[in-house]
């Protein structure tokens, strides 16, 4: 597999870290048994493998939550064995996590849910737009906020794009009663942003530089790019709305179609 693919997909880097840690611990066990006659307890071995997998993952640039998964994966399997847990249960839990958080495994974008204060601030900002605006949520998750906003602005059109299979299915069903709200099984990178007056996202730091480049190329002058919490490196937002929640979150707003090449807004 090309190195670029491994670098781009964190799940493959996590798997590589696990495999390297397993090989290293296996070699260490062979040395301890052959030279010193020491055979450590299985739980101790599993914890050592987990710590080493987390360290290797950190060297490979994995985010904190991936490091926690690397740390606990093998020790968790060993502990589950001691509790006589059916073998299908951890596999089922992992599959459910994968179906809900596919973007976290493929594009370093975990499932974040828009809070009620962020939703309130969004609602207030949207009231300043013409009634028939077009709004898209890039990575719409479970679409709770999207559905409620669609109800509040019946003349507007709301679209959510999502690639996590189970998340998409649940949000599609949720928005089904809303005639002005549609969920698409589509990557945000395949969306033409020129169609929308408002582009909202709650992603992670990783995709923001590429998203800004895409927004600059596609969005119309005057159209809003709104990011929950995550900034565009080196580009000051035109508007900042503090959410005053426990995370210190903010809504950051730019006008990419009205910006100069250095990011400065020229909309006047």
TrEMBL record:
TM ranges: 15-36, 43-68, 88-106
Q: Does the keyword Transferase apply?
A: yes
Q: Which UniProt keywords apply?
A: Membrane, Methyltransferase, S-adenosyl-L-methionine, Transferase, Transmembrane, Transmembrane helix
UniProt record, GO biological process: methylation
Q: Kindly give the Gene3D superfamilies that the UniProt entry links to this protein.
A: Vaccinia Virus protein VP39 (3.40.50.150)
Q: Domain of life, per the record?
A: Bacteria
GO MF term list: methyltransferase activity
Fetch the SUPFAM superfamilies from UniProt. S-adenosyl-L-methionine-dependent methyltransferases
User: Which named protein is this?
Assistant: Class I SAM-dependent methyltransferase
Organism annotation:
Pseudomonas songnenensis
Q: From which lineage does this chain's organism come?
A: Bacteria, Pseudomonadati, Pseudomonadota, Gammaproteobacteria, Pseudomonadales
